[in-house]
Amino acid sequence: MANITLTINGQKVTVPSGITVLEAAEMCGYSVPTFCHEKDLTAPGACRICVVEIKGWRNLPPSCVTTVAEGMEVETESPAVIEARKTILELLVANHPLDCMTCEKSGDCKLQDYAYRYGVTSPTPYEGEKKQFAVDDSNPYIYRDPNKCILCGKCVAICRAVADRNVIDYAFRGFNTKIATFMDTELKDSACVYCNRCVTVCPVGALSDRNMMGKGRTWELEKEEVTCTFCESGCKFDVNYKNGKVVGVTAKNPSAGRPLCLKGRLGTEFMKNPDKTDLPLVNKDGEFVEVSWEEALGIGPIVEKINALKK
Amino acid sequence: MQLYRAHVLVCGGTGCVSSGSKKIQEAIVDELAKQNLDKEIKVVETGCHGFCEMGPIVIVYPEGTFYCQVQVDDIAEIVSEHLVKGRIVQRLLFKAPLTEEQVPSYKDIAFYRKQHRVALRNCGHIDPEHIQEYIARDGYEGLAKALTTMTPQQVIEEMKKSGLRGRGGGGFPTGLKWEFASKSPGPKKYIICNADEGDPGAFMDRSVLEGDPHSVLEGMLIGAYAIGADEGYIYVRAEYPLAIKRLKVAIAQAEELGLLGDNILGTGFSCRLHIKEGAGAFVCGEETALMASIEGSRGMPNPRPPFPAVKGLWEKPSNINNVETYANVPVIFLHGAEKFASMGTENSKGTKVFALTGKLRNTGLAEVPMGISLREIIFDIGGGIMEDKKFKAVQIGGPSGGCIPEEHLDTPVDYDSLIALGAMMGSGGLVVMDETSCMVDVARFFLNFTQKESCGKCTPCREGTKRMLEILQKICDGNGVPEDITTLETLGAVIKNTALCGLGQTAPNPVLATLRYFRHEYEAHINDKKCPAGVCTALLEYKIVAENCKGCGACARVCPVGAITGEKKEPHEIDTSKCIKCGSCIEKCKFNAIVKG
Ligand SMILES: Cc1cc2nc3c(=O)[nH]c(=O)nc-3n(C[C@H](O)[C@H](O)[C@H](O)COP(=O)(O)O)c2cc1C
Ligand code: SF4
Ligand code: SF4
Ligand code: SF4
Ligand code: SF4
Ligand code: SF4
Ligand code: SF4
Ligand code: FES
Ligand code: FES
């Protein structure tokens, strides 16, 4: 691929043509905030936090969906850019429950990080009505707090990326827009399979793995990556340790072709977490009931082998 | 072919149908049969004439007599007086608003005199459900010329020469758009017609589809030939059942005559057109959202580039134009690009249809040459302000436009001049406001619309318009603070600069334009807690002017809360702490003694 030369923050750089301004800026060591962009998955250009200034352009274009061009003069942190990003953050914070002290995501939350970076505090200049949606704790695997959702849309994209999942989408309009299941039911009554793909990409605390709730702050946890052996997809999970003890297994942001599934996660948990005593819960006709590990994993005879392995 | 000595045109547009034109038409047919005239006189159902306010409309040819607000009871008289004896029924003629003079003929009515009908050329003059009538007025000749004597490249050159710019809002040069789509490689391309028409108050596209659907089909086919498309969609809002019906009829008739479908006119060029009914959300009119909607997804805009010409419907190169844009195309090929380009201004050629609404004497659809002044549109065609009130502002471009005050009324109207004034052409909605309109309230009204219609995808539009709306509401409620004006301006600028699609990028316009021209009204609300136009209820106080009060007590009797007291024949008084501002007293007072402000 041919190269092109452009200027980023006054510095002339040569990059491959066809890449985005965001990629070029990152190659040069500039960090540009992003919420909705997820490499190799989705670039809807929705959140607008990644806007930059390009000389001669009418608007502030989002760097994640703008392709580099020869001679382009990009500013990633000009006063106009900072004003726009700060305004966008203030708008998000004005419509957000400021729950950082108890939020599971605290310490690993993009909204928190960017608010810190751009000095956004509460109250913002835009206080007003806040969304008041019901939280969804209808199931044992995912805790959804739509009030913390910033509508980046990544969960929708990653769920849809596996054939037949497509469980959630945008619903309603204007200020009332939210991410909802078909007919806006609780997750329990949807076609969700609790693969937790959505949880892995959520940049804020709108989607949490219930298994980990209350088990420690993000910075107290150490993660060990493991590859699932239940099928040939080879999905990755994190085994989370606190003070050297396993506290739970979480799904890891999957690459293309790796579907993730509940069975894999439960099975990994079963193998890695010797302290896990609760039986797995499976949705049967709309209610979650405890089932044996054999049934949950659909692997009667294998369990014995696993148990043997564990010893 | 049967020859008739006279034709009676009955308007069958949505406006007239709702004022009862179907019954009128039946009555005329019955009456003609009764008087044995049905072999001599033909009744034709036409599309909209643009003067729906005066409907139901009946026109008698060859004279071109324009009867308005016709009732069933008038039919016998029209038939026996006009059609039998040749005597015009004076009382049903249009009355000029100022002179009260009765105007017999279509062309002499001020509403039509300054109009120049290109896109609407056939509307109201032909039966839209008979392709022969369209063909009789040179329909499909432009297509035949393009297909048989021109290469696609020549068609594009001709379009570029005509200077036609998109009538759907952005005003992008149509020839250039076609060129992009034609140069985009790929064996499969689509031609799309945007008939979503979501601007509240606009109905020009509906009128064209109802009154002259073939002009749109012909324009699309010429476009399809130019870009190399063999399939197309017309995206019509489902709330336009009559337009959909007429389009279906038109498509079937054109297919039957070999003007649509395979091997059109024996030239080897083929193109099929489908109708897609839209769900009705305003944002679905935005081109990328429209295509998503055709594909079956939620109507949400996507970033451009890639533009539709490169990656459009089902990722194939596509060309999308507005109804009125396509309706102009056949004329360019019939009479030549030069002729078309002779109308209009340097950078805006041809005509534009405006939907006149608001406090005007004549409301309706008016097609005028580009470059005409707003004053001519409002005062000559629109007949000036109702009840002789004072003009205050005109909102152009629907909810994404801006309002223009008196001092700019002489600006020639074209795409660029309107943008310079902080408004925009948009789809051509034109709402006239008089001195009784509060500009803060107007801005709030439009912003409320855009906020509700925001698709919710991007942060600045979804969250930002909500906050602007809350601030406007606060100002109207009398709780505004001086900083609110700066907040509106800075937030508005960020939204314009960062929103994803045209909806968000233009949503702050009504606010920014009113702040530009009517800042004093905002200041009066904020600093003096007064609404100068007397609209914002929270800021009003009802008062009795003692000199005018005759002490009749009528007001005190209607006041629901007993706020008015006074001795008989003595000036009365309103206790403002009790008054709930219902306005009943002001209506009751015969002596104009009660004022609000
Ligand atoms: C929010 C929004 C709504 C729109 N609605 C319409 C519409 O109803 N009809 C239309 O023709 N264009 C509409 N447009 C403009 C289209 O995106 C597009 O520019 C147009 O159809 C192109 O046709 P033209 O070049 O012939 O004007 C809308 C744009 C936006 C941003
Ligand atoms: S989502 Fe982020 S910003 Fe919101 S409460 Fe949780 S940690 Fe704080
Ligand atoms: S858990 Fe999996 S199936 Fe359920 S919504 Fe998330 S991504 Fe979709
Ligand atoms: S739930 Fe999370 S991932 Fe989904 S849209 Fe909201 S913030 Fe984004
Ligand atoms: S500007 Fe508004 S309507 Fe357009 S994409 Fe953004 S949220 Fe949706
Ligand atoms: S109705 Fe008018 S004139 Fe009569 S008492 Fe009231 S204010 Fe006076
Ligand atoms: S506005 Fe209504 S409440 Fe107030 S004084 Fe008049 S009638 Fe009474
Ligand atoms: S990261 Fe670029 S628009 Fe969201
Ligand atoms: S519908 Fe009859 S004039 Fe418009």
Can you give a write-up of this model?
The complex is a heterodimer of chains A (311) and B (597). With 311 residues, chain A is of the alpha+beta class. Chain A is 23% helix and 19% strand. Chain A is built from 8 helices and 13 strands. Chain A is globular and about 65 Å long. In chain B, a hairpin with a 7-residue loop joins strand 17 and strand 18. Chain B contains 24 helices and 19 strands. Chain B folds into 5 domains: 6-113, Glutaredoxin; 131-341, Rossmann fold (3-Layer(aba) Sandwich); 351-434, Roll (Ubiquitin-like (UB roll)); 439-527, NADH-ubiquinone oxidoreductase 51kDa subunit, iron-sulphur binding domain (de novo design (two linked rop proteins)), CATH 1.20.1440.230; 541-596, Alpha-Beta Plaits (2-Layer Sandwich). The termini of chain B are far apart. Chain B is α/β, with parallel strands linked by helices and 597 residues long. In chain B, the strands form 6 sheets. In chain B, strands 12-11-15-13-14 form a 5-stranded mixed sheet. In chain B, strands 2-1-3-4 form a 4-stranded mixed sheet, covered by helices on one side. A 4-stranded parallel sheet of chain B has the order 9-8-7-10, sandwiched between helices. Chain B is 39% helix and 15% strand. The longest helix of chain B has 18 residues, at 459-476. The model of chain B has no long low-confidence stretch (mean pLDDT 95). The radius of gyration of chain B is 27 Å and the shape is globular. The A-B interface holds A 44-49, 51, 59-60, 62, 65, 67, 80, 83-84, 87-88, 91-92, 94-95, 125-126, 128-129, 150-151, 153, 169-170, 172-177 and B 281, 283, 298, 300, 302-303, 305, 451-460, 462-467, 470, 487, 490-491, 494, 496-500, 505. The complex binds flavin mononucleotide (FMN), iron/sulfur cluster (6 copies) and FE2/S2 (inorganic) cluster (2 copies). One iron/sulfur cluster (SF4) is lined by residues 96, 99-100, 103, 105-106, 109, 111-112, 148, 204-205 of chain A.
